[in-house]
């Protein structure tokens, strides 16, 4: 084994005993960062390795007069661990659920892919289980979204993770992704039902304290239903200026002879003055500029055919309002609380109070 890669293996082992801060080895090749997890890389960036994850503990109280829902729960919303890294032009990521709510057992894969980087940032090829390129809120990590739960519109229209192959790229103010994916699950015969999904974004204004984001997505999918084929379309508009941020998405889905649509609008204010970070076509979570932490308030309104399960309602036409407050103790720890109130078109209503303690590294 060469000196470089022997040293890399030894550094990974040594990192588990490190207490905090950034450590540079006595050799010439390695940099170890334990500021918020375990990150090891060769100084010329020819190889890297990182361990990370998230843990979200939620209190949830939901009531609905649609089907008699009246529940109170304290459970793990998400618990995930991942390993990722690269060697030369090849990269990988393996992320697994340790546990989730609703009685689900851990062990299933979230991300499981190999990526080729040799063409540069303008053209990257990813093969394996990954997020399909569709939807701003869906592509924003669950540890970074401002509301504790994604909108009923994102839950209804976005495809999530699937096995397949994707070509993607990014520049200073633009991104794109287009892929060919399995349309239904991860069984033994999935490519009998396939999907083609694509997204593009541009930020015509992008400075240190201001950004304007525009995006669009499209997905055409085989379906094991009477519809036979589903075509989804998405438009994104978002921006941030100083401590204020906003985003809105419109979705439309043609499912055979049925055409459904919906939208949401979300506004946020970081009371302590920080700006919400933006990178490569998505927003990141707030990082406090003071040891006292950062405070954020958000409001979201949505209307249309959506999946209103968070408030105990059905996938149907309706409306929903969300109010939330977040406290970011540091870049790893977040405490949040939200109230969601929804109503179906037939008059049935439901609401949810949710509180979360999150640690992400």
Description:
The protein contains 3 helices and 21 strands. By secondary structure, it is mostly beta strands. The chain folds into 2 domains: 45 residues, no CATH class; 315 residues, Porin (Beta Barrel). A hairpin with an 8-residue loop joins strand 6 and strand 7. The two termini are 31 Å apart. Keywords: Signal.
| Shape call | globular
The residue ranges in which pLDDT falls below 50 over 5 or more consecutive positions are 1-18
Instruction: Tell me the structural class.
Output: mainly beta
Number of helices: 3
Helical content band: under 10%
Distance between the termini: 31 Å
Radius of gyration equals 21 Å
Query: Which sheet architecture does the biggest sheet show?
Result: 16 strands, antiparallel, barrel
The tally of strands reads 21
- Classified in CATH, the superfamily of the largest domain is Porin
CATH C-level class of the largest domain is Mainly Beta
In percent, how much strand structure appears in the residues?
over 45%
Q: Topology as H/E string?
A: HEEEEEEEEHHEEEEEEEEEEEEE
Organism: Vreelandella aquamarina
Protein name: Porin
Pfam family, one: Porin_O_P
Keywords: Signal
Which SSEs are present, and which pair or pack?
Layout lengths: L2 H13 L6 E3 L5 E4 L4 E5 L4 E18 L4 E19 L2 E11 L8 E8 L7 E8 L4 H4 L12 H6 L3 E10 L3 E9 L11 E13 L3 E13 L6 E13 L2 E12 L2 E13 L7 E2 L2 E2 L10 E14 L7 E14 L4 E12 L4 E12 L1
Antiparallel strand pairs: 1-2, 2-3, 3-4, 4-5, 4-21, 5-6, 6-7, 7-8, 8-9, 9-10, 10-11, 11-12, 12-13, 13-14, 14-15, 15-18, 16-17, 18-19, 19-20, 20-21
């Amino acid at each position: 084994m060469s000196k470089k890669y022997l040293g890399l293996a030894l550094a990974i082992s040594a990192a588990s005993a490190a207490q905090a801060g950034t450590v540079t080895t006595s050799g010439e090749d390695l940099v170890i960062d334990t500021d918020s997890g375990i990150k090891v890389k060769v100084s010329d960036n020819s190889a890297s390795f990182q361990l990370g994850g998230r843990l979200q503990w939620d209190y949830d109280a939901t009531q609905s007069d649609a089907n008699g829902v009246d529940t109170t729960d304290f459970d793990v919303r998400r618990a995930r661990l991942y390993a990722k890294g690269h060697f030369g032009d090849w990269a990988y990521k393996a992320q697994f659920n340790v546990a989730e709510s609703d009685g689900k057992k851990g062990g299933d894969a979230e991300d499981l892919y190999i990526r080729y980087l040799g063409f540069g940032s303008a053209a990257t090829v990813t093969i394996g289980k990954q997020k399909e390129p569709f939807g701003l809120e869906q592509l924003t990590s669950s540890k970074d979204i401002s509301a504790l739960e994604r909108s009923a519109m994102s839950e209804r229209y976005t495809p999530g993770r699937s096995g397949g192959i994707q070509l993607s790229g990014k520049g200073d103010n633009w991104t794109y992704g287009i892929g060919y994916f399995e349309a239904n699950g991860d069984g033994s015969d999935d490519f009998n039902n396939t999907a083609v999904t694509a997204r593009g974004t541009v930020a015509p204004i992008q400075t240190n304290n201001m950004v304007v984001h525009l995006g669009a997505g499209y997905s055409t999918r085989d379906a094991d239903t009477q519809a036979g084929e589903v075509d989804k379309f998405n438009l994104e508009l978002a921006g941030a200026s100083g401590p204020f941020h906003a985003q809105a998405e419109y979705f439309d889905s043609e499912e055979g002879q049925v055409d459904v649509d919906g939208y949401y609008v979300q506004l946020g204010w970081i009371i302590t003055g920080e700006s919400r970070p933006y990178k490569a076509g998505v927003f990141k979570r707030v990082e406090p500029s003071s040891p006292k932490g950062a405070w954020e308030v958000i409001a979201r309104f949505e209307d249309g055919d959506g999946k209103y399960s968070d408030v105990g309602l059905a996938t149907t036409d309706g409306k929903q309002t969300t109010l939330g407050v977040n406290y970011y103790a540091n870049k790893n720890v977040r405490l949040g609380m939200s109230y969601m109130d929804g109503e179906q078109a037939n008059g049935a209503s439901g609401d949810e109070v949710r509180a979360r303690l999150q640690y992400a590294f």
